[in-house]
Amino acid sequence: MTSKIYVGNLPYSVTDSILESNFAEFGGVSSAKLVMDRETGRSKGFGFVEMPSAEEAQAAIKGLHGRSVDGRSITVNLARPREEGRGSGGYGAQGFKASHRAGVGYGNDGFGGGRS
């Protein structure tokens, strides 16, 4: 089973191939991908690397966490699973909700017009 690693505080000059080559020092790399901003196409300064074994992943974490890359101390640790339902609104398991807070919006608690 592969191990997914989070890599943060990366300088914007780092590319997918540079990220992959840094981790290849510690073993095989299944994938190395930076997260890009949709609007600008520029790196968001973090990414994910997948390595084929937990032992290789731990060696990479130990060897790279805190290392200086272009003057920035990078963060390297095991990636956490994505949390479900992180948005403040939208369509979820309970249907569409504009907000999870009571008393927010038009017509509640005196907001939104109408005469009392």
From TrEMBL:
Keywords: RNA-binding. The keyword RNA-binding applies. Residues 79-116 are annotated as: Disordered. Pfam families: RRM_1 (PF00076). Residues 3-81 form the RRM domain. GO terms for molecular function: RNA binding. SMART domains: RRM (SM00360). Residues 104-116 have a biased composition (Gly residues). This is RNA-binding protein. It comes from Ramlibacter cellulosilyticus.
